[in-house]
Prior knowledge:
Elements: H1 9-20, H2 26-36, H3 39-53, H4 62-74, E1 77-81, H5 89-92, E2 100-105, E3 114-119, H6 125-140, E4 144-147, H7 153-160, E5 166-169, H8 183-189, E6 194-197, H9 209-219, E7 223-227, H10 234-244, E8 248-251, H11 262-269, E9 273-274, H12 278-291, H13 342-346, H14 351-359, H15 367-374, H16 378-390, E10 394-396, E11 402-404
Parallel strand pairs: 3-4, 3-7, 4-5, 5-6, 7-8, 8-9
Antiparallel strand pairs: 1-2, 2-6, 10-11
Amino acid sequence: MSGGARLSESQLLDWLRLIRSESVGPKTFKALINRFGGAAAAVDALPELAKQRGRPMRVATRAECERELAELDALGGRMVAAGDDHYPKALRAIDAPPPLIAVMGDIASLSRPVVSIVGSRNASAAGLAFCERLARDLGAAGFVVASGLARGIDAKAHRSTLGTGTLAVLAGGLDRIYPAEHIPLSRDILARGALISEMPMGYEPRGRDFPRRNRLVSGLALGVVVIEAARKSGSLITARFASEQGREVFAVPGSPLDPRAEGANGLLREGATLCTRAADVIDALAPLIESGPRPMRLAEDAPAEATEPLWDELEPDYANETPRTESGHEMDEPASPPGLSPRESRRGAEAGKIAMARLLGPTPMSPDDLARAADMPIAEARAILLDMELDGRLERHVGGLVSLAPE
Length: 407
């Protein structure tokens, strides 16, 4: 199917049936369409192909797909196919783009230039402050900011660009917001931005789905900015996808004493572009805004290689590199907050102290900024900082600024 053509209702159902069938990922989808000349014929051929391989597979029914489209429509969303004018050009240019994406919100935001911002869920107050300034400046310059709706840097990037446009890529279905605490944020995004998912309605995200989401976060963008990423984190997986997709990778430098800066500092050593202000991103991406990435064909009449594998449910090789919680979701934070020992964390230290310790790092910050980042009264924040100072965990600097004391 060539770019710009719209699917009929019947074709859309055939595409949805094919991509929702067991063991069919984007690469398999394309190969099957190329081999059989269209989605309808490919769906009809699936049982025989499964029989030939000696393994049964479940083929999505027409009724199931009609129900999914009805549920999406009830939420005010729509399905966008890879050949649709609204399908993001940058995403179409990646290897194995999703043939269909479910979208809610401002569909026009998908056609604007995008910068993705990702980083630690356990972000410091300094990292959050820089993220807010960077995202707002990029939004003012005409960019839509994309991220993964996770805690920390992702959420700050979204909130900072609600007025200029932001894209949130979900690991689950559009009706399964994760984490649940970001349901209000997801609603706010819809006014000037959009929620995007390649997963079915009602789908609860699993651990391996987050790297799949990350490839879309990078694929939507001309460039990806990494702020505070631990040495092994989902943010670095996003950066790796971005590099493989030919995107510009930016990294914000951090203190070598802060483990949250290890990933970004490592990217800089490997050749990522230094980012200390929005102009660093804007200047580097300016030549790409008009030309953009070259679209990749996903055409029903394109020749397929005879050796192309058909059974490759898309599951990136990096899926096992990200630490997981017991529930299978991403975990991008140390087991205990900086400044608190594991024993203190296990004993259930006060929530305020834990929150403040997580926000603090080697970079000096004002108590007022820390209080705002922790969403607590300034008096309470100052009391916690005083306790930490008496315990030898806090270092004070000129101008009333504070930082974690070196260990």
